[in-house]
Write a structure and sequence with these properties.
Layout (H helix, E strand, L loop, with lengths): L1 E5 L3 H10 L5 E6 L1 H10 L1 E5 L3 E3 L4 E5 L12 E6 L6 H11 E9 L6 H9 L6 E4 L2 E3 L5 E6 L3 E4 L6 H10 L7 E3 L3 H22 L9 H20 L7 H14 L6 H8 L9 H11 L4 H13 L2
Parallel strand pairs: 1-2, 1-6, 2-5, 3-10, 6-7, 11-12
Antiparallel strand pairs: 3-4, 8-11, 9-10
Helix pairs in contact: 3-4, 6-7, 6-9, 6-11, 7-8, 7-10, 10-11
Length: 308
């Protein structure tokens, strides 16, 4: 099986390193100095586990140079790990790489990604996905595994179930901890609720995830999450009770306490964040449904004000 990972940031690098421990061919596609250093030095993983992967273990292609035609239609699985802002261009690239009977999924934060992928690839080749692994890039060609989590997948149509199970079984032991769940929309929404609670607050306060467990910060995170949950419930999404959501948030913050969320890193670098598909999307959907989301609207407005 050949697996292509498009977007080699922190989580894409971590997944590449973990999948290298399987028997599959691993293709990494990205841009910039980080991937160039991987081509020279391989990947060093630190944090939850420490191990190194030589560059020869991967097939590497660079956005700056394009992908050779020999890659066309060669991938059984395409994982989109880039930022939400690059989803459309990476979806087109996935269409070039993916076999006619392959599957693709995005582990990018936010709402609506599976639907956008389906418009490019067809619903028969797209599955729902989310991950709770935490990762950072401390130096080029290295990745810190800041928190062990899961990769959760859900079929968009019944005929995908066997393919998903085969893929999940084939990466057992890699450390990715893949689990197949039934409802894809519930899966994505539950991850988004975690993201809207953690990412903007951590970014604005300039803190790692664990510091949000402080009483006042945690209360604000919970209230932000509950606003999003009210919107989800109006869309007939099962997100559990508010108490269950609070307990889940506390668990994630504890497990990823040393992680600097992606939005914090984006704010530090002065680049566009994923706020448009997180808190701003919650506020927009809430407005359409007549549901008040003042915290999400405020957090989105501040992040939008201080970033491009």
């Amino acid at each position: 099986m050949k697996i292509s990972i498009l977007g080699v940031g922190s989580i894409g690098t971590l997944f590449g390193a973990l999948l290298s421990r399987t028997e599959h061919e691993i293709h990494l596609h990205g841009r910039g100095e980080h991937l160039a250093m991987i081509a020279t030095n391989g990947i060093d993983v630190i944090g939850e586990e420490s191990f190194s992967v030589e560059s020869q273990r991967f097939e590497l292609t660079f956005d700056e140079a394009g992908i050779p035609s020999r890659f066309d239609g060669s991938s059984d699985v395409v994982i989109i790990a880039g930022k939400a802002r690059s989803l459309d261009s990476l979806s087109m690239l996935a269409g070039k790489l993916l076999k006619t009977d392959g599957i693709a999924f995005a582990i990018t934060n936010g709402l609506g990604h599976a639907e956008r992928l389906s418009s490019e690839l067809g619903i028969h080749r797209v599955v729902y996905a989310s991950t709770t692994h935490g990762a950072n890039i401390p130096i080029q060609s290295s990745v810190e595994w800041a928190g062990k989590g899961q990769l959760n997948l859900a079929a968009a149509i019944t005929s995908q179930s066997e393919k998903l199970q085969t893929f999940s079984d084939s990466i057992a032991g890699s450390g990715i901890n893949c689990e197949i769940v039934e409802d894809g929309r519930d899966l994505v929404w539950n991850k988004v609720l975690i993201n809207i609670a953690i990412n903007p607050l951590a970014a604005l306060a300039g803190v790692k995830n664990g510091e949000l467990l402080e009483t006042e910060m945690f209360a604000n995170a919970v209230f932000t999450m509950i606003e999003g949950a009210n919107v989800a419930r109006a869309e007939q999404i099962d997100v559990g009770t508010n108490q269950q959501l609070e307990e889940k948030l506390r668990q994630v913050l504890t497990l990823t306490s040393s992680n600097s969320c992606s939005m914090l890193e984006d704010v530090k670098e002065g680049i566009t964040t994923e706020i448009s598909v997180l808190n701003r999307e919650i506020a927009n959907r809430g407005e359409k449904l007549g549901i008040s989301t003042p915290l999400n609207n405020m957090l989105a407005s501040i992040i939008e004000l201080i970033t491009p």
